[in-house]
Amino acid sequence: MHGLVVRKQQLTPSMVRIVLGGGGLDGFVMTEATDAYVNLAFAPEGAGYSGAFDCAQVRETRPREEWPARRRFTVRRWDEAERELTIDFVVHGDVGVAGRWAAAAQPGDVLVLEGPAGGYRPDPAAGWHLHVGDESALPAIAASLEALPAGARAVVRLVCDGPGHEVELPAAPGLDVAWLHRTGAASDVDLLLEALRGLDFPAGSTDAVHAFVHGEAEEIRAVRRHLLQRGVPRTAMSCSPYWRRTMTDEAWRRVKGDFVAAMEAEAS
Ligand SMILES: Cc1cc2nc3c(=O)[nH]c(=O)nc-3n(C[C@H](O)[C@H](O)[C@H](O)COP(=O)(O)OP(=O)(O)OC[C@H]3O[C@@H](n4cnc5c(N)ncnc54)[C@H](O)[C@@H]3O)c2cc1C
Predict the structure, then answer these.
(1) Ligand 1: centre distance to CA 225 (Å)
(2) Ligand 1 pocket residue status of 88, Cβ below 6 Å
(3) Quick one: which of 36, 37, 70 has its CA closest to 53?
(4) pLDDT, position 20
(5) In the chain, N or C: fewer CB atoms in 10 Å?
(6) Would you state the CATH architecture of domain 128-265?
(7) How confident is the model at residue 17 (pLDDT cuts 50, 70, 90)?
(8) How many CB atoms sit inside 10 A of residue 202's CB?
């Protein structure tokens, strides 16, 4: 499957929205999950193939070093009527594959993808909803807020690089949003944890929360541990380390299974 870039929008200095369309998305079937994601495939520079390539065929016919780089990204929106797929990319400097592709993308460019899949949707029976993450989780958090039942109470804690990096979130009367701004200090990695430490849960409602905690691996793990210590049941939490500081996605995927197993084994 593949999409053609039809529109591009600079959401913040470090986030680019890409809207994909075209007949290459004919087979796309959206899931109910608000954290639905697609697997993107990028041909390495100089590999000698491009456009709407077939991943399976490339893997069968070419040496491993020429196989496409894979990256997972959230479906920020699927417009069934227009059959357009929106993805919001963090552009984190001049490194990596996906962020750089998004920064340079132009209308007509091709993006090869597979999916979608996903696992989370806010539980309508929950007493309140907690959403915690960084820019990479922003698309899934925004999609989740849009899916909350009318009148639901939601607390959102997001970390970003400064006021100019904040993104407008779906408005709702029961929404408590706080943005935490990195300063460049080593303590930036604790901003989410400290915000959670300072958060008063609605009285007597620890059991009633449904929590979505996604983003940088160590930050997510620390927040999850804190929530367990406060008595939040692990079954009421969706915690996913999307990326890991200092590691490319290839390096991260090699150790991610062990990291997640160790994280999920933590009782507190
Ligand atoms: C299910 C799922 C859904 C995701 N959805 C989104 C999404 O909607 N939008 C999105 O932007 N990301 C999303 N991510 C995270 C994204 O897949 C990773 O950030 C990925 O590493 C980006 O690839 P890259 O090629 O740009 O950088 P890589 O080549 O993987 O990494 C290069 C360097 O950049 C660093 N880096 C990677 N990501 C970030 C970041 N976000 N901020 C700062 N530094 C970074 C790495 O640690 C590494 O040092 C999702 C991940 C998962 C698993």
Answers:
(1) 23
(2) yes
(3) 70
(4) 98
(5) C
(6) 3-Layer(aba) Sandwich (3.40)
(7) very high
(8) 12
